[in-house]
Amino acid sequence: MADNVLILAGGQGKRMKTTKPKVLLEVLGSPMLEWVIGACENAGLSQICVVKGYEAQQIDDYLCGRYETVLQAERLGTGHAVMQATDFLNKNIDGNTLVLCGDAPFIDKDTIEGALKLHKQDNCAVTVVTSVIGNPTGYGRIIRTENGISGIVEHKDCTPEQLKINEINSGCYWFETKALLSVLSELTPNNAQGEYYLTDCIELLLKKGRKAQAYSSENPDVSLGANDRAGLLKLNDIARMKIINRHLDNGVEFTCLDGVIIGKDVTIGGGTHIKSGSQLFGKTSVGEGSVIGPNTILTDTVVGDNVILNNVQANKAVVEDKATIGPWVQLRPDSVVKKSAHIGDFVEIKNATIGERTAVAHLTYVGDSDVGANVNFGCGCVTVNYDGENKFRTVIGDNAFIGCNTNLVAPVKVGKGAYTAAGSTITGDVPDGALAIERGATVIKEGYADTKLQKRNEKFAKLALEDK
What stretches of 157-197 adopt beta strand conformation (E)? Predict the structure, then answer.
């Protein structure tokens, strides 16, 4: 007997003024839908179906087949959205179904598990996840009884006494799947909006003698969503500070939060200092005692202990312990910087391994390369890895020395302890311990520059006359 999850993700969010489905708008670099899916996965729920609607293909493209989807061709309310997933619900009819809003990103594992525990313990047909908030204006109020709840009253329908209630409906429900299916067909659109409301299922189940319960989440933000860009900004601000406070509790140092963004799945070791303007996204992990920033952007990157990254952009890269990198360095996907290596200013590394204690000090491109330990790159070096059709690798042995302005035309191998002379374009392999000098002969053409300068001066003189 498995438990299902239905994520309602069909909304357009007109006030967002976007061509995306609302649930694909991002909070700290991750779509709101992904926050909801992540909470379900953390709670051990894997039978997930997403109900799509507006720009449905974008939902499918994002999920890439990870989970089942169903289409709500007409958006006729939350109950109507659940109706579209009847076949999915019937697959595990003896279990329970969690219904979530795909645009309420702060649902969490503890709330999901706590509500399910209460749901099973009290043998409920439905358990509503609720939140107690200071200003409940606009939210449906939970009407509690001695043995559970008697229903949810929308704000506009509340009596003066009910308006004093500050326990509100979060839009998250656990249903006994069989019970949910038994009343879906009884929903009617007899309301001002002409829609099928999922909340009406509660009244229908109570009339059948079944029990309804409410689980009050300890998460004060469990019900938060966004209807416009200002609301989305607020979600980002809330999420940002939640995550930063969590890292502060774990011993991470922040002396200035200007421009600092830490994604929800990022891990950071104690004693690490995150400086202003630094943004860490995806599955990035940082070890202990490192200094990240200022102005460093890491995406899906693994950083070791005692690393210094100053003005670095890295995507799907690995930086091992005690490496120092920056400023103004780019690490592109599949780059590995080994222990105690140094990468200096204006350097780009792409699909390359930089060996231990190797120095790539400045103004250099290393792409599609395997570089050994203790190698030194002079200024302005390039591994020439692309001939216009295919890419080739460069291999550099331990203790090699690559002179300033060397071009290594791949495929090429520089042996252990070998040197290349400054200004060389190396097109053939260099043996271990050898010096390679590959320069063209200097050709002097007398008067060439004078002729070019005369033409240039005439051009600018003409432009000057035109400007008058």
Answer: 167-176
CATH (residue range 243-436): 2.160.10.10
Token look-up 């939210």 returns 139
Which CATH number does the domain 4-216 belong to among 2.40.400.10, 3.40.50.300, 3.90.550.10, 3.10.20.70?
Answer: 3.90.550.10
Q: Which two tokens stand for residue 227?
A: 């209807």
- Our measurement of the distance from residue 356's CA atom to the centroid of its chain's CA atoms, rounded to an integer in Å, reads 30
- Estimate the crossing angle of helix 32-42 against helix 109-121, to 10 degrees: 50
The closest of 27, 28, 24 to 50, measured between CA atoms, is 24
Tell me what the mean pLDDT of segment 147-171 comes to. Answer: 90
342 counts as catalytic: no
What residues contact residue 24 under an 8 Å CB cut-off, 6+ apart?
31, 32, 33, 58, 59, 62
- Rg, Å, the chain Cα set: 31
Query: Region 179-202: what's the mean pLDDT?
Result: 91
How many CB atoms within 10 Å of residue 455? Answer: 9
Residue of 80, 247, 273, 362 marked active site: 362
pLDDT digits (tens, 9 = 90+) for 209-230: 999 999 999 998 999 999 999 9
Q: What is the pTM of this model?
A: 0.88
